[in-house]
Amino acid sequence: MKHLLSTDGLDRDQAIAILDTADRLKQALLGREVRKLPTLRGRTVITMFYENSTRTRVSFEIAGKWMSADVINVSSSGSSVSKGESLRDTALTLQAAGADCVIVRHPASGAAHRLAGWLKHTNTSVVNAGDGMHEHPTQALLDAATLRDRLGSLDGRRVAIVGDVLHSRVARSNVHLLTTLGAEVTLVAPPTLLPTGVEKWPVTVSHEIDSELASQDAVMLLRVQAERMTGGFFPSSREYSIAYGLNERRLKLLPEHAVVLHPGPMLRGMEIASVVADSPQAAITEQVRNGVHVRMAVLYHLLAHEEETS
């Protein structure tokens, strides 16, 4: 595997291999006073974020540093991008400077794929850390890792993804990955927040949350992405919360074993109530912890695995 651009391109064996590697790395770090592995010593990892991020950027940086890589952060405001340099020229500059892996977040869908195309004749790997409304593959992998921790195998498990599916790269990546791993996915959203062609996706679609909860093993709430909206997709935040927010009453409709996920940042009181976000069924902080180990595993498979098996 040279790049990780999409979960749509991952088969079941590849996905499970990454998740199993994440589990092994997690175990390898347990009990260590200094959380440091020599796996990527001498490698250079560059994060290039054209959109704001807390969880993804920090966890990639920690992942690289825990594996002894040199990690360098490049922001659009602090680089030549602010002077008008193109994405292509920036990528080629970073590759020429010695980047073994470029992790990119960009507001344009397909940006990571374009970057991988420009670097196809080099040894530099590309990881998609979120491109527009397209995909966010490492988020889906850490979500799957969290569900495996809580539920075991995902075969036959039922997962509801609730909210702003239309603008969510997290939803798209999770639909691909969770169905590949054997889960049954239900999308719950108002018609205005569902993408065109969703009827062709391997999912069930519902517009009513209460009737779905009793049969679910997990519920993933999505942030309403107001920054990507140019019109009225629902009457008001209050109306949205009433219709689709996971509150205390709805939490009680879920089976006791069911898991509540959220990719963050959470809009408490809108898509998720604080009492739910802080409940034992919520695995939101576990998602963040697993994100570090999953991103370590991705870097391992891109930069170390081939060397160790050749």
Automatic annotation (TrEMBL):
Residues 2-148 form the Aspartate/ornithine carbamoyltransferase carbamoyl-P binding domain. Carbamoyl phosphate binds at residues 55-56, 105, 136, 139, 264-265. Keywords: Pyrimidine biosynthesis, Transferase. Pfam families: OTCace, OTCace_N. GO terms for biological process: 'de novo' pyrimidine nucleobase biosynthetic process; 'de novo' UMP biosynthetic process; amino acid metabolic process. Residues 156-302 form the Aspartate/ornithine carbamoyltransferase Asp/Orn-binding domain. InterPro entries: Asp/Orn_carbamoyltranf_P-bd, Asp/Orn_carbamoylTrfase, Asp/Orn_carbamoylTrfase_sf, Asp_carbamoyltransf, Asp_carbamoyltransf_Asp/Orn-bd. Its EC number is 2.1.3.2. L-aspartate binds at residues 83, 169, 223. Signal peptide: none annotated. One of its GO terms (molecular function) is aspartate carbamoyltransferase activity. The keyword Zinc-finger does not apply. It comes from the Bacteria. GO terms for cellular component: cytosol. Pathway: Pyrimidine metabolism; UMP biosynthesis via de novo pathway; (S)-dihydroorotate from bicarbonate: step 2/3. SUPFAM superfamilies: Aspartate/ornithine carbamoyltransferase. It catalyses: carbamoyl phosphate + L-aspartate = N-carbamoyl-L-aspartate + phosphate + H(+). Catalyzes the condensation of carbamoyl phosphate and aspartate to form carbamoyl aspartate and inorganic phosphate, the committed step in the de novo pyrimidine nucleotide biosynthesis pathway. Heterododecamer (2C3:3R2) of six catalytic PyrB chains organized as two trimers (C3), and six regulatory PyrI chains organized as three dimers (R2). HAMAP family: Asp_carb_tr. This is Aspartate carbamoyltransferase.
